[in-house]
Amino acid sequence: MASHTDVGSQLSSPMAFIFVFNLLLGAGALSLPVAFAEAGWIVSTILLGILCFASFVSASFMCEGMAIANVLYHMTCPKKNDGGGGPSTETEPFLGASFQEDYMTSLQQSQASLGGTKYSFRITKRIEMSELAEIFLNKVGMAIFYFTMIIYLYGDLAIYTVAVPTSLVSVACSKNVVEHNVTMCWEGVSVSKENTYRIFVMIYVLCIGPFVFFNAQKTTILQVISSVLRHTSFFIMVVIAIQRIVQKEADVPAKNEIKTFVLDKVPNFIGVSVYCFMCQHSLPSFVTPMKHQKRATIVLFSALTGCLGVYLLVCYSATFSFGPEHLEKIYTLNFESFHILAVALFLELYPVFCLSASYPIIGITLRNNLKTLFSKREYPWIIDRIVFPLLTIIPPTIIGLATANVEVLVAYTGAFSGVAIQYIFPACFVLLGRMKVKRTFGRE
Question: 26 or 360, which is more confident?
Answer without folding.
Answer: 360
